[in-house]
Amino acid sequence: MTMKHFTRKLGMWAAVIIVGALTVLTATAQTSGGIAGQIKGVDGKPLAKAQVEFTRTDVPGTYQIKTNKDGKYGYYTLPTGTYNVAVEVPGQKKPVTIGQRVRANMGEVVTLNADLQKMEEQSNAGMPPPPPGMTPEQAAAYQKALKDKEAANQKLGKLNTLLAQNKQFVDAKQYDQAIAVMEQATALDATHDVLFANLAEDYSDAKQYDKAADAYQKAIALAPNNASYVTNLGTVLNKEGKTADANAAFAKAVAMDPTQAKVAMYNAAVMQLNAGNIDGASATLDKLLVIDPNNADALYYKAICLLSKATADPKTGSLIAPPEAVTDLQKSLQIAPNGPNAATAKATLASLAPSK
Asked: How far is the CA of 51 from the CAs of 33, 74, 118, 143, in angstroms?
């Protein structure tokens, strides 16, 4: 291998750094509970193969499942929150509500049974009358509360429809349409942080990073303790070219929630690599690998950092690869043999093999 050929190799690794380092992580968290029970139809028999719908009342979100042949159902991975529960009944134009503001707590399963025959017998046409014994003022307040609740439910229904449309557009990579739908949602209700977070993701997908940052700022204003939003803000600020602001956001996220440290460190290393700061990226990746030694992406990029500073044998011109670089590449392949960097890692290792 000649010195001229060695220079091409370094150019290839530099290209790998610039292109490969563009991937960043998005912070997420998962908690879940469950709602389960049995539903009997208007004939008093188990209602089989009926669709049960769980609609969140605290933030937008809808989930569905069907009953089995015995009328039993169970959704055990609902995000923690409160739900209105309804079932679709043959012959009915609208789903029948069987539970309101049912709380799904983390690690718990709430039992919610329903007998539609008894519910039909007890139902009255129109809005239910005030309970007996109320004064005219109390009755008026009661009716107003019912109307306000109905209006809130209608708004939530519209939001859920918009969210469903948004998902369809995002899945089809039609980001302009997805953005338009989420802008409608935030105009309809500007009190839910999750709506602005979704809008921010859509702006980011459309490479409108300045608008994505603004939307994340609004989500953070509504949920100031959500470190994931701050981490994601740092990501779009980095893409916008505002490195200092991005680093500040990552540092803030780590201070708010130490579990964000891995994501923040990785994203900081990505920014340093894209800026050509190989020494800074290498130092950041060293810190990350101390707390997350099996991070395949970090190992891969650490190896690339080392290879960018490789030297050539003055007599043969052969590339002298630091042993740590080879070890890191091999370990990254052991951890993620089919990962996003696996093919490049294999090709790089092959190029470092002694020539015959």
From this structure: 19, 11, 20, 31
Residue with tokens 């993620």: 336
Helix, coil or strand: residue 100:
strand
User: Could you give the domains of the chain?
Assistant: 3-29+154-352 (1.25.40.10), 32-118 (2.60.40.10)
Within 8 A by CB and 6+ apart from 82, the residues are 56, 57, 58, 101, 102, 103, 104
- The pTM of the full predicted model, rounded to 2 decimals, is 0.52
Of 285, 235, 226, 280, the closest CA to residue 257 belongs to 226
Closest CA to 89 of 127, 57, 123: 123
Q: Cα–Cα distance between 238 and 22 in angstroms, integer?
A: 10
| DSSP H or E segment with residue 221 | helix 209-222
The residues facing 346 across adjacent strands are none
d(CA 146, CA 144): 5
Place of tokens 């150019």: 11
Per-residue pLDDT tens digits for 79-138: 888 999 999 988 788 888 888 888 888 888 999 888 888 777 655 435 566 665 566 677
- Classify strands 72-79 and 32-40 as parallel, antiparallel or unpaired: antiparallel
Written as one string, the DSSP assignment of 9-72 is HHHHHHHHHHHHTT---------EEEEEEEEE-TTSSB-TT-EEEEEESSSS-EEEEE--TTSE
